[in-house]
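[step 3/7] inverse_fold.run input=structure_tokens len=126
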């Protein structure tokens, strides 16, 4: 393996409190750290050093753009992505343990993979 297999794009806006959990969920996604590239893209000028300290796989892009929105922030991170596959995750969300390994197997077998979204409010799935 020469480079990352999956680039996970995470746009971040005022996400200091929630971003570490999102990054931790990527690291628990069932793939070795060397297979991951976690691209946090700051949309508020924050360097998100706490998230970057969680893993060598994390890089934080701070372009100077502020409040451009989730789409432009994702696009900036996507421009830096070097993985064979790309996954998107919002900073206030997280992946189920083993999710990335399962998604990768599907993507490699079928050319793409999608996942069901589960929304929980107050511990209740809605």
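[step 3/7] decode complete -> sequence:
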């Amino acid at each position: 393996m020469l480079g990352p297999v999956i680039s996970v794009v995470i746009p971040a806006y005022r996400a200091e409190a929630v971003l570490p959990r999102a990054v931790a969920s990527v690291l628990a996604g069932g793939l070795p750290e060397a297979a991951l590239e976690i691209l946090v893209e700051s949309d508020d000028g924050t360097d998100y050093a706490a998230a970057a300290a969680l893993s060598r796989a994390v890089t934080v892009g701070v372009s100077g753009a502020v409040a451009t929105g989730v789409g432009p922030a994702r696009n900036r991170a996507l421009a830096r992505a070097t993985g064979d596959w790309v996954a998107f995750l919002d900073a206030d969300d997280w992946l189920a343990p083993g999710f990335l390994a399962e998604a990768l197997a599907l993507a490699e077998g079928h050319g793409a993979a999608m996942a069901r979204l589960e929304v929980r409010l107050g511990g209740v799935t809605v």
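[step 4/7] annotate
The chain has a mean pLDDT of 94.
Strands lie at 6-12, 36-42, 58-62, 85-88, 120-121, 124-125.
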